[in-house]
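Retro notes, item 3 of 5
We never archived the inputs for the zinc ion complex last cycle. Fixing that now. Sequence and ligand:
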Amino acid sequence: MSKIVVKKIKKSKTIIEIKYTVSDELKEFFNLDNYFKVDYYEDVTKVPDSIAVIPFISNVLPIIWLTDSELVIDELDEAYAKSINKTRKAFNDMYETNIFKGKVTINKTITNKPLKRKENTSVFCSGGVDSTLSLVKCLKKNQKPLLITIWGTDVWDHNTEGWSSLNEYATSLGKKLKLKNLFVKTNFRKFIYEHVLTEKLLKAKINDSWWRGIQHGIGLLGHVAPIAYLHNIKEHYIPATLNKKNLGATCGSFPTIDESVKFIDCKIKHSGYEYTRLEKVENIVKYFKKEKVNLRVCFMDKGAKLNCCNCEKCYLTIMELISVGANPRDYGFDITDEEIAKIPAYLKAKASDSPINIEIWDAIIEKCYKNRDYIMSNPNYKWILKYRNQRNIISYLLWRSRL
Ligand SMILES: [Zn+2]
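Structure as it came back at the time:
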């Protein structure tokens, strides 16, 4: 049986570094010049090894499972150790398969108690629609969640400019809502070779990328364990990627998978699965009616702007906001009404006709139709209603562009 053996957990001030050995058969999946390393920007020296190792474990477990290998660890948090098989089962169920196998050997499980008494909630904060809706759900429960922003996810760990913009965004959101920010820098997408994992372990069995199909739920969640220990987090919210209407769609982040994960006495809440994207926007607008907050939906090169306002992600969010009667300029979109009138020209040239995008645009058109008095009152918004009786806006525009 191939093996991954954890050899050393090094904690130096704010950084956790893991050293491990990997059997020859597994070496093609790992960048062994770049060992797993996380910076928490706060002192982590008090975090016990049985918790400090979880961010690493949560990112190698799927490799162990899909290669039917063995993971060897000296000490592991008891709650997390118990959750591992439930998560493995949730993956097998998600993909209706039995290919998630493997073995985890733990020398000693440890029952941990959080460092602080005062209990906390936390939520991942990236500024997108999914993440902001999770935040709204926490705030509605009168919780004051810690905002956890991770560098190394959508913004690569070498992209310092992208990070300073995300960091600035999260900090100002924290200030505005009087919430504490926590930042994490991780190489969790670089210590492995995602493309090799996708190609060799997924392609024949699961038609998805390593990131989307496997890593982005549990891999991210593992990073919360040391924070949960330091700040006594009882519940952590992870924003839903899919929603209950996406029947049959598969994804590595899903209620059954994410909520199987537990560490110390912290539970995971997969948040917002009951809402479509448009319903999320509607809830965000309703909640922040008085004190507007900026959204940050776009990862294109934005210069000084928060959102580029020149890509499909920006355009669909702008039209979602308009469809629910909101002004996109109040939510971080620096765009004029005249520019909004030109959106169809952009879609004609560049729109993506993926089923998810088509569904999103269809929902926008229907919502605009419901709010047609408001939409018709602005000559720059009227164009959207023209597409209501077409098959859908994207295929209509693509068809038109081919004429
Ligand atoms: Zn954009």
